[in-house]
């Protein structure tokens, strides 16, 4: 099965955001990955509702929203209203994770849980059957263009085993440092969704780069 490709808009040219989104519309990208950072959960700030709503006006593909923020439960409905189709929250930011998963799904969006590189997939044992996706961070969250963490392959295998054991339908998303070199092994280990930021937007031909990733099986 071909992977789901979700280019990260954080790596795009913000001065030409409409044209970047239109480029993704014409490409083989499946989703638009939107990183929301608050400067508290991660040491960086990205964008909020006005920019997201602007992206939504031009996007013809689902919006995969990754909340790297504290207290995400305060903003779930607003992100859904702004256009989110999938909303992922960080395990590390949620005291009541199961409640937030239900809150997301109650809006009609898919619910994802993101894990920092140091967080074990075993911690998802009691919620894996209820989530729609797990996002494994293959870099430390907060900045684009970081080096891929090799331990990610082992985490994918462990997560895939857990998904099978609990009869979960959760997709496995990989976010950080994804490129044509590591994508084949990521998919072989069990990944379903590949998030690619600078690898796509820094390419001479982003549309072809997306096509190349999409063709990997």
Description of the molecule:
The chain has helices spanning 17-26, 49-58, 76-81, 97-106, 152-165, 183-189, 198-201, 206-214; strands at 4-7, 32-37, 63-68, 86-90, 110-115, 133-137, 171-175, 193-196. The protein is an alpha/beta fold. The protein has an eight-stranded parallel beta sheet. Strand 4, helix 4 (97-106) and strand 5 (110-115) form a beta-alpha-beta unit. The model has no long low-confidence stretch (mean pLDDT 96).
Helix content: 25-40%
Hey, roughly how much beta strand do the residues contain?
A: 15-25%
Lateral arrangement of strands in the main beta sheet: 1-8-7-6-5-4-3-2
The number of distinct β-strands equals 8
Low-confidence stretches: none
Rg over CA atoms, rounded to whole Å, is 16 Å
| The CATH topology | TIM Barrel
What is the CATH superfamily classification? Aldolase class I
Helical stretch tally: 8
What would you call the structural class?
Answer: alpha/beta
**Main CATH class:** Alpha Beta
Order of helices and strands: EHEHEHEHEEHEHEHH
Named CATH architecture: Alpha-Beta Barrel
């Amino acid at each position: 099965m071909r992977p789901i490709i979700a280019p990260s808009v954080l790596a795009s040219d913000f001065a030409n955001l409409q044209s970047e989104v239109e480029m993704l519309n014409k490409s083989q990208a499946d989703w638009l990955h939107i990183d929301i950072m608050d400067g508290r959960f991660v040491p960086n700030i990205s964008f909020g509702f006005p920019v997201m709503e602007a992206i939504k006006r031009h996007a013809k593909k689902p919006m995969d929203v990754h909340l790297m923020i504290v207290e995400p439960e305060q903003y779930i409905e607003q992100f859904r209203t702004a256009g989110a189709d999938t909303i992922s929250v960080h395990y590390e930011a949620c005291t009541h994770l199961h409640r937030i998963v239900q809150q997301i799904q109650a809006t009609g969006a898919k619910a994802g849980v993101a894990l920092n590189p140091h967080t074990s997939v075993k911690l998802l044992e009691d919620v894996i059957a209820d989530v729609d996706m797990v996002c494994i961070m293959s870099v430390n969250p907060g900045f684009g263009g970081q080096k891929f963490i090799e331990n990610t392959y082992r985490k994918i295998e462990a997560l895939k085993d857990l998904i099978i054991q609990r009869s979960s339908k959760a997709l496995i998303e990989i976010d950080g440092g994804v490129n044509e070199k590591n994508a084949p092994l990521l998919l072989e280990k069990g990944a379903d969704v590949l998030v690619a930021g600078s690898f796509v937007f820094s390419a001479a031909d982003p549309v072809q780069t997306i096509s190349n990733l999409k063709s990997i099986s």
